[in-house]
Amino acid sequence: MLAQMRSLLGTAEYPPGSNHNKITEWYGMNDAWCDMTVSYAAAHSDNLGAIGGKFAYTVAHAQSFQSRGLWHYGTGGIRSGDVVFFDWSGSQSIGAIDHVGVVEAVHSDGTITTIEGNTSDQCMRRLRNCSTIVGYGRPSYGDASPLPASDGILRKGSTGDAVKTLQQNLNTVMGSGLDVDGDFGPATDTAVRAFQAKYGLTVDGEYGPASAAAMEAALKGGTKPQPPAPRPPSGGQLEVDGDFGPATCSALQRALNQHGAKLSVDGGFGPQTKKALQSYLGVTADGVVGPNTVRALQKKVGSGVDGQWGPDTTRHLQQALNAGTF
């Protein structure tokens, strides 16, 4: 599964912003393709049954894992090969999931490295923390380890070391004065609700991913979870290969910043980068890279002008970026 996900790194959309590539061709529709990527990798590694079937809708996929007893909220016990689900608003609700990836590595600081499709219109590695993770599904690989005993949410009746850690943290952050006994009783429930109210969370007494992310920030003196900073490809000469991947996109972002844009150089061809490109080219900055934008780009870089962004357009763009003429 991971070998197939790695083989997809750098897969982008042609033209950029179109939701069209070999993954969506295989799936049979041009649409948001993050879960299509997971399905593609599973199908091409004989793991489609392990992930529950072919999915494009992330909520349905998470619900499938949950219905089969293969779901866990948050990141406790997460492992390489797990399918991890995100909600950018930071909720812990399966119904709010809007993105998915596959875990490649788990790090000692609580972050994970993922491989994700349709992240800034590409298949890329990302470094993620618990601030936006709803939970994960454990595919039924032949060598899969058992899931943790709990579903990942601490609530009234929970016991054990995780509850002790929560109680210690509540005492530190809130001065709750709890007995650190590992028993999630009425006093711990009251303290959790007070913590949730203070940090603007849903006050339900359930300590899940959103509360855990807020607690991590609070222990560091902050008021809200901070996502990991992007790690863009380093600068330098681009390979003129016609592949509009993270390195070319990062070089484009750096060039646009020299013309007054204030972009985060993350190698992702997202809405802000598209609008900055359009503003630089003097076309309507609507974030939709259509024929008018492509023709303006082609005129700028000296490629054939047909309104279709293909490898030839990218090669001319790469040459212009290397020469410092863009």
From TrEMBL:
* Residues spanning the signal sequence: none
Name all Peptidase C51 domain ranges.
26-118
| Family annotation (InterPro entries) | CHAP_dom, Papain-like_cys_pep_sf, Peptidoglycan-bd-like, PGBD-like_sf, PGBDSf
Which SUPFAM superfamilies does this chain map to? Cysteine proteinases, PGBD-like
- Annotated Peptidoglycan binding-like domain residues: 159-215, 251-297
Stretch list, region Disordered: 220-244
Please state what the protein is called.
CHAP domain-containing protein
Q: Name the species this protein comes from.
A: Streptomyces diastatochromogenes
Q: What is the lineage of its organism?
A: Bacteria, Bacillati, Actinomycetota, Actinomycetes, Kitasatosporales
